[in-house]
Amino acid sequence: MKIQVIIGSVRPNRFAEKPAQWIAEEARKREGLDVELLDLRDYPMPFFAESMAPARMQGKYPNEVVAQWARKITEADGYIMVSPEYNHGYSAVLKNALDHIYPEWNRKPVGFIGYGGVGGARAIEQLRLVAIELEMAPIRPALHIPTDVYSAITSGKPDAYAPLKANTERFLDQLVWWTRALKTAREQGGK
User: How much is the pTM?
Assistant: First the structure.
């Protein structure tokens, strides 16, 4: 099963790549998972301004970077998205990446890691709503990085992620279960 971890920030000196790399390594410890890290910096998509909704484009995107993004997203069976919280919401670059394509996301699970105010909880709640509209299956557990853990990670303290360990196991258990279930259903032609 292929899991893609999406870094939902492109800012200089961003924090997002730290937990993205960490969760990718944790997921790689799971048998049967092929984990890939995706950086939105590698897909500089224009601001979404198409005349037609991606749900009606049948996977044919006029912008080449968007088409490359769509091909890459198609490869995965499930996703983990790492997002900051800005002004009680998630990053604009992640919203743009989600909005540019549609069928490539359908019938696949997604889990979220958030940081910022209240551990990114408000951003994650908004992401869940968007994921449902994209016909994804957001898993219930999320990983919220509180301020003390954020500080420990940025300081490079050993075992900085230790407070997240129990939730990480549950998070990955759920992601693996939903990935397997939905991949099986897709392969059997479930509609």
Answer: 0.97
What is the number of domains present in the chain? 1
Please spell the DSSP secondary structure of 154-185, one letter per residue.
HTT-TTTTGGGHHHHHHHHHHHHHHHHHHHHH
- Beta bridge partners of residue 109, listed in sequence order: 137
For the chain, give percent helix, strand, coil, nearest 5: 45, 15, 35
Is residue 168 within 8 Å of 23, Cβ to Cβ?
A: yes
Block mean pLDDT (10 aa), the chain, length 191: 98 97 98 97 96 93 97 98 97 98 98 96 98 98 97 96 97 98 91 57
Question: What is the domain extent for residue 55?
Answer: 2-187
**Residues 112, 142: contact at Cβ < 8 Å?**
yes
Q: What is the CATH number of the domain that holds 152?
A: 3.40.50.360
- How far, CA to CA in Å, does 59 sit from each of 12, 18, 68? 32, 32, 11
The residues that bridge with 81 in the sheet, in sequence order, are: 6, 112
- Phi, psi (degrees; rounded to nearest 5) at 176: -65, -45
Q: How far is CA 31 from CA 41, 117, 152, in A?
A: 29, 34, 29
CA distance 75 to 90: 24
